[in-house]
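#structure-requests
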Amino acid sequence: MRVIIANKTCHIWRHPAGRAGRPVRMSRVSARHRRKHSRGFTLVELLIVVVIILTICAIAVPNLMAAIDQARIARAVGDIHAIEDDVASYQAIYEVLPDALSQMGDGNLLDPWGNPYQYLNHSTMKGNGQARKDRFLVPLNSDYDLYSMGKDGASSPPITAKPSQDDVIRASNGSYVGLASNF
């Protein structure tokens, strides 16, 4: 509704129920023009959304990476148990431990980090130099060593050495299979 007062045009706001409201002065910019330019987001609003998304990612990504590492360790433990079963089957059939994983068909098996599993038959090695050892430098197993070199792909015989901390090992003749740092 329009009302002309002393050569000035004012618009009166009408309530949806039909009651008249107080006069409202309209700016020179038409309502149609204002609606046309108010459809988007401001730069500040977009920056706030980006900051919130980046904060959530900064919190979530390390947790995701830790979960992926735990899944890889669990897969390596499962693979080592499966290889143990293959070694036990080979030993039951031939009454001797295999010299290499390839004798059982597991020679091409890779750990979750893309490295081949390591196997060492104690009955064919000379001395204890190559055997995996605990913190007292006592061999971990009396029959054979079976392990993954872990995330870094490096290893050394004592499991207390820095390169061996992330290895997934078989110890105590199969009673323990897990991270060397937890043994």
